[in-house]
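README: folding subset

This subset contains proteins for which both the sequence and a predicted C-alpha cell string are available. Records are stored as plain text. Below is the entry for Tryptophan--tRNA ligase, mitochondrial (348 residues), shown exactly as it appears on disk.
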Amino acid sequence: MATPSGLIRALHRGTLGQNTVVDRIFSGIQPTGTPHLGNYLGAIQNWVNLQEEYSSVLYSIMDMHSLTMPKEPAVLRQNILDTTAAILACGIDPKKCFLFRQSLVPEHAELAWILGCLTNVPRLLRLPQWKMKRASQNSEGTVGLLTYPVLQAADILLYKSTHVPVGEDQVLHLELAQDIAQHFNKKYGEFFPVPKAILSTTKKIKSLRDPAVKMSKSDPKKLATVNIADSPDEIVLKFRKAVTDFTSEVTYDPAARPGVSNLVSIHAAVTGLSIKEVLHQAAGLDTAHYKMVVAESVIQKFAPIRNEIKKLQEDKSHLIKVLEDGAEKAKELAAPIYQEIRRLVGFQ
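--- output ---
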C-alpha cells in the first residue's frame, strides 16, 4: 500500500498523471476544544479506521470555518491545540495521514473564491445550516456563514478527494460539493472526481438533557454533553441526570422512548456491541441502574484517551509541529492540482 508521502513523490515525478484518480479521503473538524462523545463516535472513531484502510488520507483542523461563529483569538488558539491533542490521543496517526490546520494552506481560500463564482446564492440560502445558524446571529448572518459550504467544497476538491466521511447533517453540503465539481467539469473539462459520501454507521448521539436534539459542544445545559476528557465523576453525574421516561425497563424505540434509546445507542457504540446484544445485557435492569452501566462503559473507553490528552497538552510545541508538518505535506499535494486549476480558469 502506497504511503501518502509516496503519492506526493509520484505526483511530482509525473508517475501519477493529473487525470489519474487516486482514492483519497478528506475530512475536517472545527476546533471547538476537546471533542465530545458525539464527535468521537460519529466521526473520529471512523477516521481512525479509515487511515488504516486508505493510502491517501487528509484530516484538517478547520480554523477558517470556526470564524463563522465569533471567537476570541486566544480561545481559538487554545481550541486548535486542544482539538489536535484530542484527535491524536484518539488514535489519529500523522504517519498514516496528513493532519493539518486549514488556514496554513492558503489554496483553500483561493479555490473557494473560484468555486464561489460558480455557485448561485439561492442554493446557499436553502441550506438548513444557514437558516439555523443565522437565527443565532440575530437573523442577520454573515457572508462567511452563508458561503462556508463553498469553502467546504474547496477543502474537498483541492486535493481531488474521492471520498468524504460525513454525518447525516452534512449530506446536503457534500451534495453541493458534488454539484460544484460537476459544474466546474462541464465548464472547464473533466478535472475533479465527484466525491462520494462515506456515511457514519453510528446512530446520531443525542443530548443527555434533551434527546430531541443532537449532542453539541455549544449546548448551554452543562449536563447535556459528555466530553471525552471529562473525569469519571463528571461522566457518572451526567448519565445519572440523563433524561429518560417513567418506564423502568430498558428498550430501544427512538420514536417512543428517545432518552433510553439514546443510552442504548451510546452503550452499543462504545462497546462495539449490537443494539440487540446491549439489550440482552440490560435485561432485568431498571433505567437508573442501566445509566450507571452506560457511564462505566464510557469511562472505560475514554480513560486511556483522557490520560493521553493530558500528556499531549503539556507539549504545545509538539502539537504545533504536527500541524505545520502536515500542512507542508498538504501544500505539496495541493500545489500541482491548484496550478492546473489556475491554468484551466485562465489565471495563467
